[in-house]
Design brief:
The protein is an alpha/beta fold. The chain is built from nine helices and eight strands. It has helices at 19-33, 37-43, 49-56, 62-78, 89-99, 111-120, 143-152, 166-174, 199-212; strands at residues 6-9, 16-17, 84-85, 103-106, 128-130, 159-163, 178-181, 190-191. The protein has a six-stranded parallel sheet with strand order 5-4-1-6-7-8, covered by helices on one side. It has a two-stranded antiparallel ribbon with strand order 2-3. Helix 1 packs antiparallel against helix 4 and helix 3 crosses helix 4. The two termini are 21 Å apart.
Amino acid sequence: MNDFCAVLFDLDGTLADSDAAVARAWAAWSAKRGVDLETIMRVSPGRPGVETIAELGAGLTPAEVLADAEENLRMEEADLDGVSAVPGALDLLASYEDLGVPWAIVTSCPRPLALARIGAARLPRPRVMVTADDVTRGKPDPECYLLAAELLDVEARRCLVVEDAVAGVRAGRSAGMTVAGVRGVPGADLHLTGLPDLTSLAGRCAHRHAVDA
């Protein structure tokens, strides 16, 4: 791998396994609005929920879109059953903390939901976290990743993005960053078999960050 100075992680599906909770929330909206669940699960990954509802909720007024998104969010915040750390996530982040590797979470979740899932998965809370509340345009727009790099004071080209969704891959690459994909997501620059693949990066990343400092 190249010498990166920081690692920017997506949250859901990358660090936290929240698949079941996400599916339950979307299943409820599917039943409410008569939208095909398979289509929802194809369109929604990596994107703010309100954008998915606006796209698929044919005939909904802007007020109804917002109301549905808020209802969906409340359901997700209350449903943390089964949310857990992705294998290798806890050890990887612990090694980054020990070595002083700069890292951040960049998620399409609103901040309260992101914090709830971080807590449920027992992940360490990052010093830098960019959520849907911090940007005007969600993934696949690069705004979120560019903001995370700015907050970490690291050049975009020196950041490695770790993603499991096509929208996130597109966001990272549009930001001029290298993207490592998990779960077989297409379009990534690098393909990981799992988060432990990034363990060897920690020492080089810490050394490079120290040199640049």
